Amino acid sequence: MRRKKPRGFIARWVRRLCIALLVGLGLTFTLIAYANFAAIWASRGRLHDDVATLPTMKVGLVLGTTDRVNGHANPFFRYRIDAAEKVWKAGKLEILIVSGDNLRPSYNEPEKMKQALVERGIPADRIVSDPRGLRTLDSVVRAKEIYGSSSILIISQRFQNQRAIYLAQANGIDARGFNAQDVEPHIGLKTSIREIGARVKMWLDVHFLNTRPSHLGEKVQLPP
Predict the structure, then answer these.
(1) How many domains are contained in the chain?
(2) For residue 151, what are the β-bridge partners?
(3) Can you state the percent helix, strand and coil of the chain, rounding each to 5?
(4) 66 in a domain, yes or no?
């Protein structure tokens, strides 16, 4: 007959398993907290809510998002366009790069942003479309490596500006952020939850994964 293991042996392994799980959870929560704080810390003193406090810079980078969600106008999109218009009309920028997803012919975030900005009176020849800004990291790194700009003003909501500035600094880019109006909490709840994980990915991309943009390609000369 097989000898039964004593209850003490099983109890010890249960305790060890519980301790391992608690340690794992503790490390996970520590990483989440650290990554989220790192983005806030990196952007301290570099975020602006008032256009009057902005320094004059050459290039603004508007981070992309879809213009409509479930058939309705996307407030994240509208508020980013509002912010870009405000900065441009204050005379703080010479060029706007609109960076977003255009991998599918039927989906073109940069073109939608460019159209919206032209309708606000911004000259089309001062707007450059980046069709391969598939994620924040791609948009930020491509601003330097494809469009040759090592100093940029990032235009998006505060939460994304914080993360984008962290990524910019990690890639040798001098970045500031102009905060677009945020959306109502009940509308942006899913985005807020997703941002927690995005910041962990941000930290891992920089410190462990050495993540590069999905697409690079030939350099593009910005308008003079």
Answers:
(1) 1
(2) 174
(3) 50, 15, 35
(4) yes
